[in-house]
Amino acid sequence: MSRPTILPAYILATLPLVMALLATAVSIGTGDEVVNFFRQYRQAHPALTACMQVITDFGNPLLYLVYGAIFFRARKRGDRHDMRFVAVYIVVQLLVSFLAVRILKIGFGMPRPGTEGPAIPFSFKGVYNSFPSGHTTEIVGAVVPLAWRCKALLPTLALGIYMGIVGYSRIYLGMHHITDVFAGLLLGSVAAWIIHRLADRTPS
């Protein structure tokens, strides 16, 4: 199966989220000013806030259906490559997006937006599990491998926009800082690369 070059596809898929983070950092800031801005914005735009809540809640689960469809289609056709792709995706996401992220959250103990005081490393309290963003790690780890499978520009860009909205919703809703989401982007990129490498490896 022909695929676009890895780097351009990755840049295109991650560009919407990266640009949104940069635009926010430049125009608003990176600290409490962002928290205060979006707190007021949420109060002034309840309909948009409700939409963003739906996106943040169901953005990742929707992709479970996509990967499930890929698996059952592959199973029906006897396509071992695609079945392997989905199996690797599940294992890597469990190890990176859930286990590794959880360990990092507890280890760093960074306070979430609106939580006063310093970091409390090794805290199991949710308000001190801000860094990194698990939602962002998961969505990047799911979308980028799909983007690498695309053959066209528009589907890759559409996936990137979708990923960007899900990731940015965490900032909009006051659940994460910009640095949390950016760290999630990096971790998710690592997960995506591992998925790509292992799924494409020819079994011996």
TrEMBL record:
<dbReference type="Pfam" id="PF01569">
    <property type="entry name" value="PAP2"/>
</dbReference>
<feature type="transmembrane region" description="Helical">
    <location>
        <begin position="152"/>
        <end position="169"/>
    </location>
</feature>
<feature type="transmembrane region" description="Helical">
    <location>
        <begin position="47"/>
        <end position="72"/>
    </location>
</feature>
<keyword id="KW-1133">Transmembrane helix</keyword>
<keyword id="KW-0472">Membrane</keyword>
<feature type="domain" description="Phosphatidic acid phosphatase type 2/haloperoxidase">
    <location>
        <begin position="87"/>
        <end position="196"/>
    </location>
</feature>
<dbReference type="InterPro" id="IPR036938">
    <property type="entry name" value="PAP2/HPO_sf"/>
</dbReference>
<protein>
    <submittedName>
        <fullName>Phosphoesterase, PA-phosphatase related protein</fullName>
    </submittedName>
</protein>
<keyword id="KW-0812">Transmembrane</keyword>
<feature type="transmembrane region" description="Helical">
    <location>
        <begin position="84"/>
        <end position="104"/>
    </location>
</feature>
<feature type="transmembrane region" description="Helical">
    <location>
        <begin position="181"/>
        <end position="199"/>
    </location>
</feature>
<dbReference type="InterPro" id="IPR000326">
    <property type="entry name" value="PAP2/HPO"/>
</dbReference>
